[in-house]
Design goal:
The chain is α/β, with parallel strands linked by helices. The protein has helices at 16-26, 46-61, 79-92, 112-131, 142-154, 185-194, 211-224, 229-257, 270-273, 278-293, 301-313; strands spanning 37-41, 65-72, 96-101, 135-137, 168-170, 175-177, 258-260, 266-269, 320-323, 326-332, 341-347. 45% of the residues lie in helices and 15% in strands. The model is unreliable at 1-7 (pLDDT under 50).
């Protein structure tokens, strides 16, 4: 993770030049990669409002069409009013705005934040795909990164999990961009204050029933011991550089060992797949499941490891497993089981029809 320039106060507003530099990192500083249109996720909170206002200036200067997307989860009685307020704020600044409603929000009783997150990304991804918008900006910042590292450490996610959130990630055909991962939350709030822009305060941000809120409180205690969000984010960046090398190795495997199948599936040459280090196999499998399953977030590491162990064992039963919206099937060329082993990954069918 690239630090902000030396001498920049942690509470100063983020200026246009800094934001343009951060956007350049998302596109590898290659102007030809800058798109003609982008969407930006705007909940109405301080972080996303600041991202939207900064994106508006960047988009105007780069002749990029910008649309703000707000998801109304329907989890609070005033959620529709909040979405309308966000629309009014953005309309006053000439920003196109679209509200996406989650129909199933009122019926959710457990894992509320997780399910709301999955629904949010699915709705925004589908909106982008329907309109040919290839990039979706989200407002994750430095403290979010630090909290993610702590949560993954708690869940024993392994070395690569400690890389935290990547600056860019494939969201099933739409590229998710996180230009603010280097930026402190205080700077985003100051950006809004300097432009006289209000924001929505979500009461769930103080609800200790949610794990991320508890981790946020814990992080505040760690700050007093010198374990700051900035240092945790820097550690994630160091691990991220290792992950980048391994990602390249995984991409090489995919280019040589994987071929497309009918009905949106893929076929993996088992000898090539199983012939690389296990960490690379994990990344290959995660990438392919995300591509075929189209889920917004990767499967839990324990479930991914279980599936990979099954693939490595090459047992005769069961012949198929499911994970992340995908069915993974073991197959051999020829009529007996002595032929070349392959794995087929295809979209998982409706549960009611699966045998």
């Amino acid at each position: 993770m690239d630090d902000m320039p030396d001498g920049v106060p942690s509470c100063s507003a983020l200026n246009e030049a800094e934001f343009a530099r951060l956007m350049g990192l998302c596109f590898d500083d290659k102007p030809d990669r800058v798109p003609t249109s982008v969407a930006v996720a705007v909940s109405g909170g301080a972080d996303s409002m600041a991202l939207c206002l900064l994106s508006r200036v960047w988009a105007h200067k780069n002749e990029v069409a910008l649309t703000a997307l707000t998801v109304d989860h329907g989890l609070r009685k005033n959620s529709a009013d909040e979405a309308a307020q966000v629309g009014a704020w953005l309309a006053a600044r000439g920003i196109r705005h679209q509200v996406l409603k989650w129909a199933g929000g009122a019926d959710v009783q457990s894992r509320v934040q997780e399910r709301a997150r999955d629904a949010r990304y699915a709705l925004m991804r589908d909106w982008c795909l329907d309109r040919g918008v290839a990039y979706l900006l989200v407002a994750h910042h430095q403290e979010d990164q630090a909290e993610t590292v702590l949560m993954r450490l708690k869940k024993q996610s392994g070395l690569l999990g400690l890389a935290g959130m990547a600056r860019t990630r494939d969201l099933g055909g739409v590229l998710l961009l996180r230009p603010l991962l280097d930026v402190k939350k205080s700077r985003l709030r100051q950006t809004l204050k300097d432009t006289d822009q209000d924001w929505v305060e979500d009461p769930s941000n103080d609800n200790l029933a949610f794990e991320r809120v508890r981790i946020r409180k814990f992080l505040a205690h760690l700050e007093h011991e010198g374990v700051s969000a900035e240092r945790l984010a820097a550690a994630a960046s160091a691990v991220g550089r290792v992950r980048t090398v391994l990602e390249c190795a995984a991409d090489d495997v995919i280019s040589t060992a994987v071929v497309a199948q009918g009905a949106g599936g893929l076929c993996i040459d088992a000898s090539l797949f199983l012939g690389v280090p296990r960490t690379v196999r994990q990344l290959v499998l995660a990438k392919l499941l995300a591509q075929i399953g189209g889920r917004g977030y990767p499967s839990a590491r324990s479930k991914l490891d279980s599936l990979l162990t099954w693939m490595e064992a090459q047992e005769s039963t069961p012949v198929a497993r499911t994970l992340g919206g995908c069915a993974v099937r073991r197959t051999h060329k020829g009529r007996d089981k002595t032929g070349t082993l392959s794995f087929l990954i295809s979209p998982e069918g409706p549960r009611g029809g699966r045998k």
